[in-house]
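Weekly modeling sync, notes
Attendees: AB, CL, MP (scribe)

Item 1: holo prediction request
CL wants a bound-state model with beta-L-fructofuranose before deciding which constructs to order. AB pointed out that an apo prediction alone won't tell us much about the pocket. Agreed to run with the ligand included and paste results into these notes for async review.

Input as submitted:
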Amino acid sequence: APPTRHIAVDLGASSGRVALGTFEGGKLHVEILHRFPNGGVPVRGQLYWNVLGLWREVLHGLKLAAQHGEIQSIGVNSWAVDYGLLDAQGDLLGAVHHYRSPRLDGVMQRVRATLTDQAIYNATGIQFLPFNTLYQLAAEPPERLARADKLLMIPDLLHFWLCGVAVTERTNASSTQFFNPQMGKWATELLDALNIPTRLLSDIVESGTTLGKLTPEVERETGLRGVQVILPATHDTASAVAAVPAEGQDWAYVSSGTWSLVGIETPQPIITPRSLAENLTNEAGVGGTNRLLKNVMGLWIIQQCNEVWKLDYADLYKQAADVASGSTIDPDDARFLPPGADMAVRVQAYCSETNQFVPQTPAEITRCVLDSLAHKTAQILRVLKDVSGQAIRVVHVVGGGSQIALLNQLIANACGKWVIAGPVEATLMGNLSVQALGQTDLPTLRQVVRASTALKTFSPNPQP
Ligand code: LFR
């Protein structure tokens, strides 16, 4: 088959990328054309995303892509749960809220008290996290919802701007906590009970679907011609897991970045009293798979510390490898969720409250966080094995965090399992592969990723 070429846009909480993927001879070559920073914008006590700025960066990336010859398709993925509201004219209605915004303080507790955990979990199978779209909508002033005509998740919003078609792709729909994975449709009864208008919702569509051509305006702006928008798995974690270079069944993944998503793939959602008690999530994956996983706070804590330290990450991780393990925190303690220049102080306070050694230097604090992430990973793998009955032999670490050799080794040690690290650009590779191959055949897709990536292996060292 002749080579095909596709554009993937991957928007992460701390950075975005526009990449060109070329498929040829069963291999995928990824070239990153444009990288740009992303992050929350604080305004009057709340936190927002600068989606218009992101859109401008995307257009810039597309202009660069247009210089690379004929391109078949484009698809966008991003972090989950956040959305834009549109009015009846299709105009963006106000700013886009950030999932770490203080507007959500106390909202989940209120909704859980009203609806009950059983009702929410049995309908959705989603982990209770204070920023799920369900709670974000419950935090919206009713007047704003009344003025809104449509809710679009971030990647769906960008697809709408690219080609004028407004739909909701399934993997990201599942992150809202008002999608029923067993019925394959919106859990509208949850929204009804909270007086949230369900007319805001649009049709749920599978990844791999062709939405339509770029609008004439986008073609003019970018110089691209004849490019189709094809839905990838728009939830970044779903794209990353699609690109886990695994074979067989007995593996777990860690999608390692701002968040650390620790999970396994199961054929069906697992929604039981035990999975509720363990607060496990069941998110939709590519090809009708289920991702049984848990959110772990991830590198976010170190990223926030380093906003103050401003150290080179490679140096920081090298130094962290040279200090001894000391204390561990629970990275998922609620105090670590909001941004803040005092993140290092929060880590120290946790250690001191739990009568542990209080890390002082950036290297010590970083080591404490990495040790804690590794321990949490091991703990979650034990739960996943128990709940699913699936054996776990190897752990695949993918995403930006898979470059941190120290973290990979700590995970191998804590889990007592082999770690296979890479690809770093799993999300882009998953996005591009679904555009090129469709989503039906995950083993083939993973074969392409394996053929296209150099992987590193870490063997577990006995704990001292
Ligand atoms: C990772 C991720 C997680 C989601 C979190 C918030 O980038 O998409 O899967 O829980 O961001 O949206």
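Recorded for review: The longest strand covers residues 27-37.
Action items: CL to compare against the apo run; MP to circulate these notes.
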